[in-house]
Amino acid sequence: MRAYAIGDIHGHLDKLGAAHALIAEDRARCGDTDAPVVHIGDLVDRGPNSPGVIQFLIDGRARGENWVVLKGNHDRMMEMFLREQPMVDTQLLYDYNWLHARIGGIETLASYGVEVPDGIRTYQLHPKARVAVPESHRNYLANLPSHYRLGDLYFAHAGIRPGVPLDQQTEDDLCWIRKEFHQSTADHGPLIVHGHTPVDAVTHYGNRLNIDTGAGHGKAISAVVIEGRDAWVLTGEGRDKAVREAPLFRF
């Protein structure tokens, strides 16, 4: 069984296009036209072209591409802000919201043509934002799934809560969890493929595979191919085996 996956995007349409080009090259080499491509979430924020990323993914699905796109915490924050009655994600730190300078919502609205002046109130900005962001984009974000299961692989943006059955995981955890998941040495059953927390290189920990290589901080978007529980990073020269940490399973 083979699957492709793409790490956190954060509004970088050019890097997303390059990742898909690498996948197309690998498909041609191995003759596989059917394996799905799973986008691990965080389509928006911080980068220059969030609307282009969303439209690229909408258009791909419309023409029948075998793509899966998951909801990241940044996608969730944007969608909640753009509801008819704006909401703040309860998982955010106190005094944070989507328009906090460290989050990236300001850059996303700018890419839709909406400036966010210092001191502007939500009630003043919200109507402009809803007009600027097409309804198709708002609906797309609202309907993204929070996970995807393929055989011995389980994809979620942030990870899972250890000890909780996969069919009982919450969207809060699937989009936001960090410490408890990263510190777990448990065998979760399937290999958990996730992003959300940047690493210097795609890293395989035995029970999980982190594919976020920091596009939200000006670094790369990684494309990977997974066969069974083994993973390779796709490059212009072909496949590179993912960095492998010492096995973490507790027996």
How does this model look, in words?
Strands 3-2-1-9-10-11 form a 6-stranded mixed beta sheet, with helices on one face. It is built from 8 helices and 12 strands. It has helices at residues 13-30, 50-62, 73-81, 105-111, 122-132, 135-142, 171-176, 179-182; strands at 2-6, 37-39, 67-69, 147-150, 153-156, 191-194, 203-204, 208-210, 223-227, 230-235, 238-241, 243-244. Strand 4 and strand 5 form a beta hairpin. The protein is globular, with a radius of gyration of 18 Å. Helix 3 packs across helix 6.
Overall outline: globular
What class do helices, strands and sheet pairing give? alpha/beta
**Overall mean confidence score, pLDDT:** 95
How do the strands of the widest beta sheet line up side by side?
A: 3-2-1-9-10-11
Helix share bin: 25-40%
* Count of alpha/pi helices: 8
The secondary-structure element order is EHEHEHHHHEEHHEEEEEEE
Q: Please give the alpha-carbon distance between the first and last residues.
A: 27 Å
Low-confidence stretches: 247-251
Largest sheet: 6 strands, mixed
The Rg value, from CA coordinates, equals: 18 Å
Strand content: 15-25%
Topology, number of strands = 12
